[in-house]
Amino acid sequence: MLEINNIDFSYGSSKILFDLSMSANSGSVTCILGRNGVGKSTLLKTIMGIESNNSGTIAFDNNEISNLSTSYRARMGIAYVPQGREIFPLLTVEENMKTGFAALSRNQRVIKDEIYDLFPVLNEMKNRRGGDLSGGQQQQLAIARALVTRPKLLLLDEPTEGIQPSIIKHIGKVIKHLVQNDGIGVILVEHNFDFAKDLASSYYIINRGRVALTGNGNQMKKEEVYKYLTL
């Protein structure tokens, strides 16, 4: 579904990604792990088109997308849940979700019942302002808003950060459902090893903007991965 070959990225004179290659498949979870500041979030922004890679290629469904706009990538089926959620605090839950309609044709602009089935709390609170929700509820809203766009590929940046354990568990179940039942591909940036290990079909460890370690999810070993997660 996604094939990245030898991309570089710089903020001015500061180089963030170095000759980085990776791939992700539909119906699977690809986990990206690493310390803070090694380029994980930048990688997701580059896939989404928020940042532009300086060199290399990004192909989605066998189409080169490096020069395409963020909105066009969204219409192709890539959705992004940023770190920090970035919901609109003054809009209601339902209005926040409807912002995802921008990526859809007019005849598709409906919130599917499945989304409320996955996140029942959002159905109960659909008329509440986004800013009135707890952190965990806002994270569920951010994921739901992305799902409104009917993605083929879902990019999740630290979805468990600052979230209570019961909601972390629920988000894990939702990800499994999306992968197993809907065939969605997920790229998950995560610090929580146990959460990542439970979900990963494959994994990449990023260190100083480069892939330091990769393998199948069932090959993830805590002692090997922790070397790249701790200072």
TrEMBL record:
<keyword id="KW-0029">Amino-acid transport</keyword>
<feature type="domain" description="ABC transporter">
    <location>
        <begin position="2"/>
        <end position="231"/>
    </location>
</feature>
<dbReference type="InterPro" id="IPR027417">
    <property type="entry name" value="P-loop_NTPase"/>
</dbReference>
<dbReference type="InterPro" id="IPR003593">
    <property type="entry name" value="AAA+_ATPase"/>
</dbReference>
<dbReference type="GO" id="GO:0015658">
    <property type="term" value="F:branched-chain amino acid transmembrane transporter activity"/>
</dbReference>
<dbReference type="InterPro" id="IPR017780">
    <property type="entry name" value="ABC_transptr_urea_ATP-bd_UrtE"/>
</dbReference>
<dbReference type="Pfam" id="PF00005">
    <property type="entry name" value="ABC_tran"/>
</dbReference>
<dbReference type="GO" id="GO:0016887">
    <property type="term" value="F:ATP hydrolysis activity"/>
</dbReference>
<dbReference type="InterPro" id="IPR052156">
    <property type="entry name" value="BCAA_Transport_ATP-bd_LivF"/>
</dbReference>
<dbReference type="GO" id="GO:0005524">
    <property type="term" value="F:ATP binding"/>
</dbReference>
<keyword id="KW-0547">Nucleotide-binding</keyword>
<dbReference type="GO" id="GO:0015807">
    <property type="term" value="P:L-amino acid transport"/>
</dbReference>
<protein>
    <submittedName>
        <fullName>Urea ABC transporter ATP-binding subunit UrtE</fullName>
    </submittedName>
</protein>
<dbReference type="InterPro" id="IPR003439">
    <property type="entry name" value="ABC_transporter-like_ATP-bd"/>
</dbReference>
<keyword id="KW-0813">Transport</keyword>
<comment type="similarity">
    <text>Belongs to the ABC transporter superfamily.</text>
</comment>
<keyword id="KW-0067">ATP-binding</keyword>
